[in-house]
TrEMBL record:
<dbReference type="InterPro" id="IPR036188">
    <property type="entry name" value="FAD/NAD-bd_sf"/>
</dbReference>
<dbReference type="Pfam" id="PF13738">
    <property type="entry name" value="Pyr_redox_3"/>
</dbReference>
<dbReference type="InterPro" id="IPR050982">
    <property type="entry name" value="Auxin_biosynth/cation_transpt"/>
</dbReference>
<dbReference type="InterPro" id="IPR024000">
    <property type="entry name" value="CHP04046_FMN-dependent"/>
</dbReference>
<keyword id="KW-0560">Oxidoreductase</keyword>
<protein>
    <submittedName>
        <fullName>FAD-dependent pyridine nucleotide-disulfide oxidoreductase</fullName>
    </submittedName>
</protein>
<dbReference type="GO" id="GO:0004497">
    <property type="term" value="F:monooxygenase activity"/>
</dbReference>
<dbReference type="GO" id="GO:0050660">
    <property type="term" value="F:flavin adenine dinucleotide binding"/>
</dbReference>
Length: 427
């Protein structure tokens, strides 16, 4: 079966549905193609004790914003699912669930041809505009040597982790200290498990500073709205891992040094392994120091903003290390230390092999400007740093979606054969 629709939005998460919200208000016929069900990832890919790391007031989507009793708190996974469900009830998005797009290619008469896989079989759909909203990096990364480790050691990726009880009894090696790795290590530590943690180069940030959440300060300073091209440090800065912190139990710092003082075992970057032996680079001290330097530099930036604006604030301060590594451990025998499981938290990679279009750089990342590519009619939404630091977060999705929708609406106006359709996306 082959059908045509003016616009196809591929992906039914909050980013794709935000574009749909604007297109619906403008009267643009479209369809949202979702491989599972809308915003399913929030329920299916987060651990039991997951919380947002951004304050609840950051949660804004088209026509909808958090209005609960705790704007400075941090919603749990289940609360986020409920909040998103409430948003979905406010409009009627034309979503086709359980419909996976397996191929996108140029159409014979312009536009695009999509191959769809559904429960009923395969079909094709043509469209003039395609908005890819499948997420920034959907493929979990595992190291090349993971398959060489002893089969007696359970291995899962961070997206599969739910709670300490799902892992076999014994110690756990967590690899990576981005937001997921640091928080999962904390979750296991609080559950009483012996944790071995391979520390990466991710920076960290204070949860609260001078009486307010640091992310509220940064929002007031305009950092989430600054275009990526204008961000200090350029491309290298924006490609770094996000700062680790947690919203758990009302929000607090994640201090790996304190975890170590409480018995967690810390190592540098994991670089290899075979059977039950794994090796680490001697990078632990440098990684901890770097994270603390970033932490204190952010506090200093907030200090400068307070001084410049006269904002009301508590007294300034700086983090002082509570623990220092005596050595740089470079090896670990998993069997000897009773390690029965590994949680890989080393990130994800892009996978756009199903898109047959010249819209990608050598690393497989979309070449785009505010989501719009040089391929006529092809756009992206929901990418980290797509336009600003807020892109890919609740705080920036609305603005990004509005821009993509306005681009599509403008193209429809320009191509109208008779009197242009009067369309509005305000409100």
């Amino acid at each position: 079966m082959s059908t045509h629709v003016p616009v196809a939005v591929i992906g039914g998460g909050q980013a794709g549905l935000s574009v749909s919200w604007y297109l619906s208000r403008a009267g643009i016929e479209h369809v949202v193609l979702e491989a599972a069900t809308p915003v399913h990832a929030w329920a299916d890919s987060r651990w039991d004790n997951f919380t947002l790391v951004t304050p609840n007031w950051h949660c804004r989507l088209p026509g909808y914003a958090y209005d609960g009793p705790d704007p400075d708190g941090f919603m749990t996974r289940d609360e986020v699912v409920d909040w998103l469900s409430g948003w979905l009830d406010t409009f009627d998005a034309p979503v086709r669930t359980h419909t996976r797009v397996t191929r996108l290619r140029n159409g014979t008469d312009g536009g695009f041809e999509l191959t769809l896989r559904t429960d009923a079989g395969e079909e094709t759909l043509s469209c003039a505009h395609a908005v890819v909203a499948t997420g920034g990096y959907p493929i979990p990364v595992l190291p090349s040597f993971a398959g060489a480790l002893a089969p007696s050691v359970t291995q899962i990726h961070s997206e599969q982790y739910r709670n300490a009880g799902q892992l076999p009894d014994g110690a756990v090696l967590v690899v990576g200290t981005g937001q997921s790795g640091a928080q999962i290590a904390e979750d296991l530590h609080l559950a009483g498990r012996q944790v071995h943690l391979a520390v990466g180069n991710a920076p960290r940030v204070a949860r609260f500073y001078r009486g307010r959440d640091c992310m509220t300060w940064l929002a007031d300073m305009g950092l989430y709205d600054r275009p990526a091209a204008e961000y200090p440090g350029g491309k290298a800065a924006i490609e770094k891992t996000n700062h680790y912190v947690t919203g758990r139990d009302g929000g607090r710092d994640i201090d790996l040094r304190r975890f170590a003082a409480e018995g967690m075992r810390l190592y540098g970057t994991l670089v290899g392994g075979h059977d039950t032996a794994v090796q680490f680079a001697p990078t632990l001290r440098r990684a901890l120091d770097h994270a603390d330097v970033v932490y204190n530099s952010i506090c200093a930036d907030i200090d400068a903003y307070i001084e410049r604006t006269g904002a009301a604030a508590g007294p300034p301060g700086r983090y002082t290390p509570v623990w220092e590594p005596e050595t740089e451990p470079t090896a670990l025998d998993l069997a000897a230390e009773g390690v029965t499981a590994i949680v890989w938290a080393i990130g994800y990679r892009p996978d756009y092999r199903w898109i047959e279009a010249s819209a990608f750089d050598g690393g497989g990342r979309p070449m785009q400007n505010r989501g719009v590519t040089t391929v006529p009619g092809l756009s992206f939404i929901g990418l980290p740093w797509m336009h600003t630091w807020g892109s890919g977060r609740f705080l920036g999705v609305d603005s990004d979606a509005r821009h993509i929708a306005e681009t599509i609406i403008g193209a429809h106006r320009d191509s109208a054969p008779a009197s242009p359709l009067r369309l509005a996306v305000g409100g």
